[in-house]
């Protein structure tokens, strides 16, 4: 089978996105408006905290940044398409869609980790489950091809002797997938938190497998900086990493406040968000060295799935220097 990355990205990019006119990016000299992409997931709570507390704005002000604008994406594929188009400077995104984008020419690097694990396979309450074989013939909604969830789900099925083609895997963003399982349109979902906790709170499904059981200690979201920002404004990238570290450590020490911040910015019920923090198998972290092996492993898995042309190396994907400088 020929690699199908371009086709997969085209299929995944069903969402459209309009950026604020007049944004100043890295191609016009000084960066006055830093553009950050993110997804509405508790995986990326560091961004929500840094934004809510004004840390992005305050910490970058001395470097000439007068405005920080963030843009929400349902999944990583359209977010990476925006970065490919030069419309984002920084992205909180899953490592798998980042890999797919790099394989098609994205000029960017991972400069920090964000978190590990943290997704659940959720089935409707009336669907029995004891082994992966129970998924044969079922409809499972998850993120589009080339994402963390799609890659892990397909690999896990194969490792358990299940042909992924025997399961109807449907690409959906978390909002659509949560609605679909509630309406009985799918048998289950494989989604990052807080979606599993939202479904449980609604009483329409229960978690049967966590992603760490599928692929132990796997990397998930990462912090990505554009190549132009890295080359032209390294001091700005270093401060972005430093602020991300501050927000990550703050959230670990103040989980209830982090839940309140996330809930207020997303409209989610705060008790459901707290349940997500309690029930997930994820961990927030910032040190990219912890996840390098896992991210490189994704390139091998995506190659085996014919999502990319060849496996990539650590040097293709990471710039560890900014985290080292931020910690020095």
Number of helices: 16
Structural Rg: 19 Å
**Main sheet: strands, sense, barrel:** 5 strands, mixed
Order of helices and strands: HEHHEHEHEEEEHEHEHEHEHHHHEHHH
CATH class of the largest domain: Alpha Beta
Would you kindly provide a written description of the structure presented here, covering whatever features stand out?
The protein is an alpha/beta fold. It has two domains: 5-116 and 218-327, Periplasmic binding protein-like II (D-Maltodextrin-Binding Protein, domain 2, 3-Layer(aba) Sandwich); 120-214, Periplasmic binding protein-like II (D-Maltodextrin-Binding Protein, domain 2, 3-Layer(aba) Sandwich). The chain is built from 16 helices and twelve strands. The strands form three sheets. Strands 2-1-3-11-4 form a five-stranded mixed beta sheet, with helices on both faces. It has a five-stranded mixed beta sheet with strand order 8-7-9-6-10, with helices on both faces. Strands 5-12 form a two-stranded antiparallel ribbon. Strand 7, helix 6 and strand 8 (168-171) form a beta-alpha-beta unit. The longest helix has 20 residues, at 234-253. It is globular, with a radius of gyration of 19 Å.
